């Protein structure tokens, strides 16, 4: 066992799920549940046959933003194909083409009367490929061949524009552009590797609203999923090696997975309180649990006015308490307003309270949360314009600068929104609600995570 | 109407802010919800509505979603724990008030306002940007908060102003009447009554009747309520304690961000 720390995991209703779990059992690459989530993300692609059918019919493809998906329309090149009606056959063919051998783990789920296919590639493909591109490339090319064969597009010399249209509907402008169109009918769950923001940011390339939808608007469940995605990325981009490993594990356990019921306790205690009250609860808890301690009664530890410079016992643990309190403060403030827009207020302005309350103790994530939060506030308010908090992806240049402790808070804010946003999850992420229903892996993440941690406790 | 909520009594004794001088006290008072802000003036509710300019006097509140009691939502235990504000419960629109604070003896400053708001108001959205501070809440909550903010000691009619647009002016010299510059001329000093009167609302739309918001603080009073250090209010040297804390804060951030295992160095850095 690398680290001594053990924690208890609680559900969002305060039920004890697992006791004395070593924090290494919550390591993204060791916890079986987290591993399964990452593999699911990599191997799953969504095929929107309904949309593809419409695009082919209208000759509508090659757009460059998600909002305007009708910049180019060439109905005279259109193809009237009944893809949705034939979806069963298409799915069957697709499975045959994608599987490595008969009866392997290739999986295709047909949804919404066949207009939507959830395609899962064999794990072996993902294990051997350099990245998760096959979730897009293989599915897209296979689909192209199936459509060509099935609808008599088998002679390339006969009206070749039809092939051009089919290629464009499936692959967008790629490779003229670095990836397919935004909102492409064939898409992996994450951003395609060629348009990632940086090395290792794949797992956090989700839109905040998608995570909210995957968590089915249940605050702590969505927060847990966001933390799993974020920490997967942190470990992948090298931000959790050596010095940082314990820091990341503790932070994610206390903020994301409701360790020791800390977040829930803080929220309950301040259910009728303000964001500042959470700071007081944090100081109380940290002193009681021995995370910080009273300073010696002499200068400079006690200043002439009687102001105390509290002493840290363990910085990583203090940070974990800090980020948990941060989430609690966001929940208390957003929960009172039942709106998401004030997450940035807490993220950008609340951290000062900790510094001055604790006598200059570092605030959550050593100030990165505050810095990022201020920028996030600018771009979610009229000051510089921008989007609603839910429309940001977790790897967006505005929100990606913390060690994975900021976006779970935004997710919490969006879960508590009662309908004040233009970019609401049910507007932007309807598909992900369906996915959450159909893929049981995304349901009850806190319980599954605790179960998985319990199962590997012995090994650690 | 506007009453900041009573702060709960924690077992832990809050220290809020370092320093023993007058300015530190002002800052501590702003951030400490147990301290009551002195009431300086009375402004009728209707006048607050007119000043904000979000709705007409007597008009009912517009809602963005059904009242929470009628809203069918997905199950989430957290939603049942945190108590929504009256405005949120009714599904009100979200509206704002924005203050610009002069740099000449201000009773409040943009960087201090978030601490004032977040320690006393529930469900608030704050955002600061060069000389201005935005406060957003549900409509009936923002009206209550605005009343409280305009009636108490944190507002000086001459040196703080409500500005929704054209916020510029916080760092310019005060005019001949001692008022902060406003390119939109939203307010003026009524020399007969000695009170500042708003002739336009926050969005610089002309009002039917001028709205008095009380007399400006005198130079002496303003110095007494100043929340910034300057040579004739509180000497820079009196900031030693604050500088110690800020230095510790910065070093802790740098060290902790560099290597979270260096607890000892964070503790000893001052």
TrEMBL record, chain A:
- Positions of the Methyl-coenzyme M reductase beta subunit C-terminal domain: 203-453
Q: What class of enzyme is it?
A: transferase
**Which residue intervals define the domain Methyl-coenzyme M reductase beta subunit N-terminal in the entry?**
5-198
What are the alphabetically sorted keywords of the record? Answer: Methanogenesis, Transferase
Question: Which transformation does this protein catalyse, written as a reaction?
Answer: coenzyme B + methyl-coenzyme M = methane + coenzyme M-coenzyme B heterodisulfide
Kindly give the InterPro entries that the UniProt entry links to this protein.
Me_CoM_Rdtase_asu/bsu_C, Me_CoM_Rdtase_asu_N_sub2, Me_CoM_Rdtase_bsu_C, Me_CoM_Rdtase_bsu_N, Me_CoM_Rdtase_Fd-like_fold
Q: What would be one Pfam family of this protein?
A: MCR_beta_N
Tell me the GO BP annotations in alphabetical order.
methanogenesis
Q: Which cofactor does it need?
A: coenzyme F430
EC number from the UniProt entry: 2.8.4.1
Provide the GO MF annotations for this entry: coenzyme-B sulfoethylthiotransferase activity
Q: Annotated pathway, please? A: One-carbon metabolism; methyl-coenzyme M reduction; methane from methyl-coenzyme M: step 1/1
Quaternary context:
MCR is a hexamer of two alpha, two beta, and two gamma chains, forming a dimer of heterotrimers.
Q: What is this protein's record name?
A: coenzyme-B sulfoethylthiotransferase
Q: Which organism is it from?
A: Candidatus Syntropharchaeum butanivorans
TrEMBL record, chain B:
User: Top EC class per UniProt?
Assistant: transferase
Q: Which cofactor does it need?
A: coenzyme F430
> Cell division: is it a keyword of this entry?
no
Give the span(s) annotated as Disordered.
Answer: 1-35
Q: Which reaction does it catalyse?
A: coenzyme B + methyl-coenzyme M = methane + coenzyme M-coenzyme B heterodisulfide
* MF terms in GO: coenzyme-B sulfoethylthiotransferase activity
**Pathway stated in the Swiss-Prot or TrEMBL entry:** One-carbon metabolism; methyl-coenzyme M reduction; methane from methyl-coenzyme M: step 1/1
Alphabetized UniProt keyword annotations:
Methanogenesis, Transferase
Record's compositionally biased regions (Basic residues): 1-12
The alphabetized list of GO BP terms reads: methanogenesis
EC number, as in UniProt: 2.8.4.1
Keyword field contains Transferase: yes
The Swiss-Prot or TrEMBL record describes its family as follows: Belongs to the methyl-coenzyme M reductase gamma subunit family.
* Binding partners and assembly: MCR is a hexamer of two alpha, two beta, and two gamma chains, forming a dimer of heterotrimers.
Instruction: Provide the protein name.
Output: coenzyme-B sulfoethylthiotransferase
